[in-house]
Amino acid sequence: MNCLDCLTGQHLDVLAVGVCVDCGAAMCLEHAYIEVVHRTTVVPLNRVVQVEPPARLLTCMTCAAARQAAGVASTHQGRLPHGR
Ligand SMILES: [Zn+2]
Ligand SMILES: [Zn+2]
What we know:
Strand content: 25-35%
Largest sheet: 2 strands, antiparallel
Number of domains: 1
Distance between the termini: 24 Å
Order of helices and strands: HEEEEEEH
Shape: elongated
Bound molecules: zinc ion
Number of helices: 2
């Protein structure tokens, strides 16, 4: 499978390393956005706490930007490839 963003940029032979959880596009490492997310659980007295270890969320750059615009991404923990 090849990276969708590379294909649209005329780079035809770049292999994908993953698939965006939001739109399903295949992405190379350069076009992937890797976010660290903490799952939560409810402990006695209805307190919501984060659990360890953190999980990984893989999205394309387009969906990462949309998530950040909507305020649902933890931008301080994400990784944007260089150039962004
Ligand atoms: Zn790519
Ligand atoms: Zn996407």
